[in-house]
Design a protein that fits this description.
The complex is a heterodimer of chains A (455) and B (226). Chain A is an alpha+beta fold and 455 residues long. Chain A is built from eleven helices and 14 strands. Chain A folds into three domains: 183 residues; 148 residues, no CATH class; 71 residues, Roll (Nuclear Transport Factor 2, Chain: A), CATH 3.10.450. Helices cover 50% and strands 5% of the residues of chain B. Classes of the chains: A alpha+beta (455), B mainly alpha (226). At the A-B interface, helix 3, helix 4 and strand 4 of A face helix 2, helix 5, helix 6, helix 9 and strand 2 of B.
Chain lengths: 455, 226
């Protein structure tokens, strides 16, 4: 009896080993299920990424094909209206092409060259469109440039056509991503763009009035051309005296188009300035300070006065505030020289004032250093009233001033600047003081909690 | 055994109840932008400017909601046969003929500033303030350059351009320093004077990046033009 009872007990309670086996089988099954789910999810994610790359590739290839056709048409067109229309289409399509091209996983050097080609093609077409619409035809130089752009576009398309064959054999972008090199790769696509560059002839530089013109690659600092090179020690003394620094640390010289000295300057109160002074003439190029601002204790008007006084002293030039915006306890003040009732916007200086203690916490003078020079201005041919009549009647004008404004291609124009409102939004309209043409219109964009910007 | 089953069911019901409660707190699509005391200065400025154009508001546009603003809104609402409650709801907004921004939204310019701040925070938190401004300036220099995409989001999300985008750190919330640095960079502050690249010499592995001429160093980063 006792024996059979103990046997029954053994049957009711499986041994510990059995429990361990059951546990292990359950754990392995759960792990297998989890791994399968993760694998499926990862495959879907990679699939989605591959689809995005493929879409970008096919869109890029289509758009470059269309661009080649349009370039060939503009080269044989004899009508100004047709040329302007084609230039506008190329301009628009280049913008779409660069968006798709930038999404492709191509090596950094290859992609920058390809993007530069597309951006410059669009930029140049926009410039041509404006010029043709203003009555200017295509010059021999333009035709040479268009021939060159057409040839480059054609080469890229030949190269991409070869890749299309690989695509039809289920080429996968994601399989060519080299994770060890931060994903840079692109396989055959990479080779095709590099190949285009290697086979291409040495093209001349594209210089025209546009933001991507090769002419803008090197900057000229007009103010500094007539100033002599000074020593780093003199610069340190300047920082100590002008900024009231307790200690000054020389970080070293910085290169590029603008040669500067860099300094760190500890000021009373614990904050530290980072200062860049030009080697020629020891002019401040930039002052930055990351000091925390604790609330607002001074008015915008007071901040404006401090900005005008401080910036005029540091730049050794009489400057007037032309724009002020307070945000998060900081007053951002833009200043420009004013002579004979004309405000010189190309010589703009930007200053930051801490609105708790009223001190300077930033200065940016790149435009001033590039453009401030002696100028001979033409006399205005339109009166203020004549220019005012050219502004839309919808805008309720509140103020106006005569100003020199920057124009594309490093040019400047004398204009009447009108500030007014329409439906609660502020607009600034610039009317040329010589021709009466509306040169620019800007809207002040209010951004929640971050002040206002010009758009 | 039965008791355990009840416990499991009770726990499930609690989780479901909590989920339902959480779901009920999810933000709903705003149907109207009610503007009243304490709203964003941006919206208040738009309302004040419009009321001033229409002759209801006589003092300076300051972005601060005070008694005169309320009185002007009420006066406008009365004239337009609206409920004169001093609140700018959908009907008052339509009658004023203005378009107000939703709470927290800052339009395209604000989105760029916030995205730039996130990039700066992810790439350069722990760097000196100037180093943070410099990262923002490099992004904007790329936007201006023909060699890169032409928008802030295009540059930041270009495949493998920034390690912070690859490892997800771009999604961290920026601190005030990063927001200020983004604002400075957008206002034109560029300590790098036109540089398009930067790298940390202690961690950079790309041979190509080492071949670039370093124009200046700020904090741990070396900056190069091309």
């Amino acid at each position: 009896m006792e024996n059979s009872a103990s046997k029954a007990a053994v049957r009711e309670k499986p041994p510990a080993a059995a429990w361990i086996i059951i546990g292990l089988v359950t754990a392995i099954t759960a792990l297998a299920l989890a791994l399968t789910a993760a694998f499926v999810r990862q495959r879907e994610t990679v699939g989605a990424l591959e689809s995005m790359y493929k879409k970008s590739y096919y869109d890029t290839a289509d758009e470059l094909g269309n661009l080649e056709v349009k370039l060939s048409k503009i080269l044989v067109s004899g009508s100004s209206a047709q040329q302007a229309r084609l230039a506008a289409e190329i301009w628009k399509q280049s913008g779409e092409t660069q968006i798709n091209l930038a999404q492709l996983p191509i090596d950094e050097q290859a992609i920058t060259r390809a993007l530069k080609f597309v951006n410059q093609l669009g930029d140049y077409s926009g410039y041509l469109n404006n010029r043709i619409q203003n009555g200017g035809g295509l010059a021999a130089e333009d035709e040479e440039n268009l021939e060159m752009l057409y040839e480059r576009c054609r080469q890229i398309n030949i190269s991409l056509a070869a890749l299309s064959e690989a695509m039809s054999r289920d080429y996968k972008f994601t399989a060519h991503i080299d994770r060890d090199k931060l994903g840079k790769g692109g396989g055959a696509l990479n080779d095709s763009f590099s190949g285009v560059e290697n086979n291409s002839v040495d093209y001349p530089k594209m210089i025209y009035d546009g933001p991507f013109s090769d002419g803008l690659d090197s900057k000229v600092y007009k103010l500094l051309e007539r100033l002599e090179k000074r020593g780093a020690d003199e610069g340190a003394a300047w920082v100590k005296e002008k900024l009231g620094a307790e200690t000054v640390t020389f970080y070293g010289p910085a290169g590029g188009d603008l040669l500067t000295y860099e300094y760190g300057a500890a000021i009373p109160g614990g904050a530290e300035y980072y200062v860049q002074l030009t080697q020629n003439g020891l002019k401040p190029h930039m002052i930055a300070c990351g000091a925390t601002v604790n609330g607002t204790r001074i008015s915008e008007e007071k901040a404006r006065l401090i900005a005008e006084q401080t910036a005029s002293e540091l730049m050794d030039c009489e400057l007037k505030a032309v724009w002020i915006c307070a945000s998060d306890g900081i007053a951002y003040v833009n200043l420009a020289p004013e002579e004979n009732g004309v405000t010189y916007y190309p010589d703009l200086i930007k200053v930051k004032i801490a609105m708790d203690y009223g001190g300077l916490i930033g200065l940016e003078a790149n435009s001033f250093l590039m453009n401030h020079t002696e100028r001979t201005l033409p006399a205005a041919r339109l009166s203020e009233a004549e220019a005012r009549a050219r502004v839309s009647k919808k805008i309720k004008i509140e103020s106006s001033r005569l100003a020199l404004i920057p124009r594309p291609g490093d040019k400047e124009a004398l204009a009447y600047e009108f500030s007014g409102t329409h439906r609660g939004h502020r607009y600034i309209v610039c009317v040329c003081a010589l021709t009466g043409e509306e040169l620019d219109i800007m809207r002040v964009v209010e951004t929640a909690g971050r002040g206002s910007m010009l758009e | 055994m039965k008791k355990n089953a009840y416990k499991i069911i009770a726990a499930c019901l609690t989780v479901l109840a909590c989920a339902a409660a959480a779901a009920s707190n999810l933000p709903r699509t705003a149907e109207a932008k009610y503007i009243t005391k304490g709203d964003t200065a941006a919206n208040i400025r738009i309302v004040q400017t419009r009321l001033k154009e229409l002759g209801y508001y006589k003092i300076a546009v300051d972005g601060i909601w005070g008694a005169k603003t309320t009185a002007a809104v009420k006066s406008f609402q009365k004239d337009k046969k609206l409920t004169a409650d001093g609140i700018v709801g959908a009907k008052t907004e339509a009658k004023l003929g203005v378009s107000l921004t939703s709470g927290g939204s800052a339009g395209t310019a604000g989105n760029d500033a916030y995205l730039l701040a996130r990039c700066i925070y992810a790439e350069a938190r722990g760097e000196p303030y100037t180093g943070m401004v410099a990262i923002g300036a490099v992004v904007l220099n790329r936007v201006k350059s023909g060699k890169f995409p032409n928008t802030v989001s295009g540059v930041i999300y270009q495949p493998w351009a920034f390690t912070a985008v690859n490892d997800g750190q771009i999604n961290l919330s920026p601190n005030q320093n990063a927001l200020n640095a983004a604002r400075d960079a957008l206002s034109g502050w560029d300590p790098t004077n036109g540089c398009l690249y930067y790298y940390n010499p202690a961690t950079a592995t790309s041979k190509w990046i080492w071949s670039l001429t370093v124009e200046l160093k700020i904090g741990k980063h070396s900056f190069a033009r091309a």
